[in-house]
Each structure stands twice: as C-alpha cells, then as structure tokens.
Amino acid sequence: xxxxxxxxxxxxxxxxxxxxxxxxxxxxxxxxxxxxxxxxxxxxxxxxxxxxxxxxxxxxxxxxxxxxxxxxxxxxxxxxxxxxxxxxxxxxxxxxxxxxxxxxxxxxxxxxxxxxxxxxxxxxxxxxxxxxxxxxxxxxxxxxxxxxxxxxxxxxxxxxxxxxxxxxxxxxxxxxxxxxxxxxxxxxxxxxxxxxxxxxxxxxxxxxxxxxxxxxxxxxxxxxxxxxxxxxxxxxxxxxx
Amino acid sequence: xxxxxxxxxxxxxxxxxxxxxxxxxxxxxxxxxxxxxxxxxxxxxxxxxxxxxxxxxxxxxxxxxxxxxxxxxxxxxxxxxxxxxxxxxxxxxxxxxxxxxxxxxxxxxxxxxxxxxxxxxxxxxxxxxxxxxxxxxxxxxxxxxxxxxxxxxxxxxxxxxxxxxxxxxxxxxxxxxxxxxxxxxxxxxxxxxxxxxxxxxxxxxxxxxxxxxxxxxx
Lengths: 241, 218
Known about the structure:
The structure holds two protein chains of two kinds.
Chain A: E1 2-11, E2 14-24, E3 29-33, H1 40-47, E4 55-60, E5 63-64, H2 68-76, E6 78-81, H3 93-103, H4 109-122, H5 138-150, E7 156-160, H6 168-183, E8 187-191, H7 195-201, E9 204-209, E10 212-217, H8 219-224, H9 229-239
Parallel strand pairs in A: 3-8, 3-9, 6-7, 7-8
Antiparallel strand pairs in A: 1-2, 1-4, 4-5, 9-10
Helix pairs in contact in A: 3-4, 3-5, 4-5, 5-6
Chain B: H1 7-11, H2 13-45, H3 50-64, H4 68-83, H5 89-114, H6 118-126, H7 131-161, H8 173-184, H9 187-212
C-alpha cells in the first residue's frame, strides 16, 4: 500500500533522512518511534508530499508521490492528523469536516453534512457538531480532526504525534478512536511516543534515529529484545520514567 | 468674538451636504479600490518569485514615502498627459487615493495573512486542496477577521484625508465649509460645525471597530 524506497532529504548541508526504506501492507498499522529530531515526522510528511525529498521514491496505492497534479489526487486518498490539530477556527466542527469534501470532491452540502454527522458519531462527538474548535477540549478537537481526515474516504491515514499536544487525561479518548480505526482495517502510519498504544495496536514498530531507520520489528520483539544498542538506549529512557 | 449665530449652518446645510456627499463617496470608492488592489498587491508582495515580490515592495515603499497631496497633484496633471484627454478632478482624485491607499492596505493584508499559522494552509493542502483553494477557504476568512479593526482604522484616516482634494478644485466637505465661512464671515461657527461632523463620523466608526475587535480570537 505504501512503498518508501531509499528516501533521502537534506536541509542545506544537514541530512535529515538517510536512505529510508519502508513498505506498509494494506491494513497494516506501523508505529514510528525515536528520539526527537530523528526525522520521523519529516518521513511521514514525505508520504503525502507536504515535505519534498531529494532522493528516492514513494508510492501510495500504486501512485507515485512526484508530479504536482498527481500529488493532489493522491492527497485526497491520504488522511493526515497533525500534532496541533489544525482545525479551522472560523468553522464549526461540522463545517470543518465538510470543507474538503465540498471544495475538493465537489460534494453537495447536504451530502457532505450527512457523512460528517456519521463520522462525528463514530468519534463520539455526535452532539458537538455546531461547536467551534475553541469551545472543544484538546481531545475533542483531535477527534474532530480525525473525522475531518476520514471524510475524504482515505485509503491510508498518517498520524503525526497526535497526542503530544494533549493533556494526559485526554490521550486515551484519541487513542481509542485510533485503535477502532485500526481494528476496522485502516492502513496507518503513526508517529507517537505512546508505547502502550504501540504494544497493543501496532503490527510493526519502526525505530528511527538521526535520520535512519535503525530497526524494524514486531512490538513483542522490539520491547523485549531490541537488536540495536540505540533502540535499547531509547527504550530505557522512555520506559523508566 | 461677538455672539455666535448658528443659523448660518442651517441656512447653508444643503450646500454643505453636497460637499459631505462628495467626501463620503470618494472615500467609499477609494476604500473599495484600495482594498481590492491592496489584496492583489499583497499576493505579489508574498510571491515566491523574487523580482515580483521586489517590485511590489518597491511600490509600497514608494507610495509610503511621498506625501498624499503630491500624489493627488501628480495624477491630476499626469493622467491627462498619459491618456491624451482630460479626466476631470474627481476621477483623478479617485485614482490618486486608490494608488496611495493600495500601499497601506497591501501591508495590512500581508500582515493579516502572515498572522495565520502555516499549519492551517498545510491542513488544507493535505486534503487535496490547491494552494489557492486553501487560501480562499481557510486563510483569507481568518485573516480578514483578524485585520478588520486595522482595515477600518485605515479607512477612517482615508476619509479624513479626502479633505486634501481642494488642491484639484474639488468641493469636498471641508472646502464647502471654508467657502461658507468666508462668504458669511462666520468662521468660528462653521469650523466648529466641521469638527463636530468629522468627530461624529469617525467616532461612531471607531466605536463600531471596538465592537468588532475581540469578537474573534483564535
């Protein structure tokens, strides 16, 4: 479903991605973890072309992330959830979800709204449709953002540290929605520090450090017997606090 | 000073009113033209194509460093030369105000657009919108709400500046006031009245701005 082959990227002289390769099968959930600055957010932003890359190739569902016109079509099929939610503050929760289907897919308003209500119910916010982002808690905002991404009927969902900006008591409600999605067979790449989620939901864990994919392993192996020294060091830091 | 006689204002009210109409009409047209061209100019100013951005910046800096009264003069004498025919003082004044205010509106709109976090436009682009669609549906509505108070403040200044059109023989409100004041030899009454009218218009507008401000916060 997602093919990343030898992708490299430089910021001036600094190499942020070093020949990264990763392939994700349909319905697979891949968690990307690693220390901050390791390039994990940059890598998933390359998948929908929000970040350009200098070398290598990425294809999603057979379509290459390259030419401009094709990229736009590809983006309609890749949902993305951001660390800072990025809901549109001037629109209600419902309108946030309806905007892209109406503007990009040219859906009629009634049609888009009907679908949006279904999605709001799915993320547990059925009675919040007319609220504005500022009237919602962080966890609720992020759930609306997930519904907004789902409104385009994506075949792939990318999550860029979806719970990092949340207060601890709201993390679970967002992770629960993501677990449901995974159970329904969505193909997902999730950049996160939530190791409990990774252990329960991920099919595979990718560990990145200094722009490299250092280790790829099923969660059981990764958490009990990581191969690389760098992964061991990272795990000991985040699991023992 | 002698006794003040305010009936002189009442007697000349129709004459003063035609002057005020010209001021308001000119201001309204210039606000419209200035915001329209200012929006376009701000886009050019933020263009990734260097020479385009540079030209827009040069335009802004040029018009911000010359006095308005000079621009009004230039346009009055230059435009007929360029077009080969007389344009009349009102049209030339409108062009002058529009060109001049475009520079100010451009900077206000640019600041407004740049106040919207880049993540917002990325969120739109990530759903398959073009940059233009994301600007139109996501950035612009927020930016205009943020800059509304400054846009209106600038527009009030523009309205006050319309009193400069006397230099091209237009009879705006201020000119009408002077004419009556000199004819009737009632300077105190008329200039007090003028102050009152300007105050009333500008004060109500700024009260309106205060109500808008704070109505929307990210």
